């Protein structure tokens, strides 16, 4: 019968003498949700960057008013692509609806037939009247400055 020497106890690492400095947490993206059922649809971080938008195309309109272009969406359903004639030309688009309550939210631009509009392809044009979030201001809200 062989006996091995007793094992030395495991030691924990020593506490560092300097206090570790932590990096700040990244900013939490502000969610934009469906106005009807509050399902998260996208975030402010998914807005199409201004550098990707030509200077003559800074205000977007959907079927129900002001809109913004986004690079990604969540919790949505897309319809079959159809060709729509818009003020900027013909586009192949898919209607976007909320996956929870099926409310209309906007549309995805699949293809632009005008070469000057091709930069919009694969973007999601979401109607601000159909979304709820921190940067959306409604004319009927008490903090609105439309007092003219």
The portion of residues forming beta strands comes to 25-35%
Low-confidence residue ranges: 139-148
Can you identify the CATH superfamily of the domain at 31-132? Peptide methionine sulfoxide reductase
- As an assembly, this protein is single chain
Under CATH, the topology of the domain at 31-132 is which?
A: Metal Binding Protein, Guanine Nucleotide Exchange Factor, Chain A
Summarize this, please?
The protein is mostly beta strands. The protein has strands at residues 31-34, 40-43, 60-62, 65-70, 76-78, 82-86, 89-98, 104-112, 123-127, 131-132.
Describe the model.
The chain starts with 30 loop residues before the first strand and ends in a 16-residue tail after the last strand. The chain has strands at 31-34, 40-43, 60-62, 65-70, 76-78, 82-86, 89-98, 104-112, 123-127, 131-132. It is mainly β. Strands 3, 4, 5, 6, 7, 8 and 9 form a seven-stranded antiparallel sheet that branches. A three-stranded antiparallel sheet has the order 2-1-10, with no helix packed on it. The chain has a domain at 31-132: Peptide methionine sulfoxide reductase (Metal Binding Protein, Guanine Nucleotide Exchange Factor, Chain A). The chain is 0% helix and 34% strand. The model is unreliable at 139-148 (pLDDT under 50). GO terms for molecular function: metal ion binding.
